[in-house]
């Protein structure tokens, strides 16, 4: 109902998720619940080594964005799942000037969605599945909405929660130092002086 009120003339939902969320059915349930006459479902490989352009270089994905515009409907890209999906499909949203919503199902993605505007691909050697450089190609793009089904967090291993707490502490340290000491520390944090 929130999206229907935001887009009274309709919209074109594009749901993106990794195979883990796809197998659980979360993303498909969301696409059905949105009850739009048009839409697209994009499932992809999960994991850090799939945080690369080749995973998201789908003609069907870009055709869906183009189709939305042909129908004069705003393309609304919705990232359901973990941080890799949120980062990568968020970059696609940025590059195509599409509306962007994040539905994190992990605390790490929740942290990224709510405290970081960074959306990026990594440089990965596809022959060896080795990450050569993380987040090397990206953009800053803030989601218009973050909707977090917190109940999904109860299904996670403790290590996932601990990693997200560590990531959150790092982010808060960067912002805290940026606010307290200004440009001398973390000068490259966008918006740090705010």
Topology:
Blueprint lengths: L1 H5 L5 E7 H6 L1 H9 L5 E5 L8 H4 L2 H12 L4 E7 L1 H14 L2 E6 L2 H9 L2 E8 L4 E11 L4 E2 L11 H24 L13
Helix pairs in contact: 6-7, 7-8
Give an account of the 3D structure.
With 194 residues, this protein is an alpha/beta fold. Helices cover 43% and strands 24% of the residues. Helix 7 runs parallel beside helix 8 (158-181). The protein starts with a helix and ends in a 13-residue tail after the last helix.
Distinctive features:
8 helices; alpha/beta; 194 residues; 7 strands; five-stranded parallel beta sheet; two-stranded antiparallel sheet; globular
Listing every helix as H and every strand as E from the N terminus to the C terminus, the arrangement reads HEHHEHHEHEHEEEH
Mean pLDDT equals 85
**How many E strands?**
7
Strand order of the largest sheet: 2-1-3-4-7
Report the radius of gyration as a whole number of Å: 17 Å
Helical residue percent band: 40-55%
Tell me, briefly, the overall form. Answer: globular
What gap, in angstroms, lies between the N and C termini? 33 Å
| Strand percent estimate | 15-25%
**Total of helices:** 8
| Main pleated sheet | 5 strands, parallel
Poorly predicted tracts of residues: none
Structural class estimated from helices and strands: alpha/beta
In short:
The protein has helices at 2-6, 19-24, 26-34, 53-56, 59-70, 83-96, 107-115, 158-181; strands at 12-18, 40-44, 75-81, 99-104, 118-125, 130-140, 145-146.
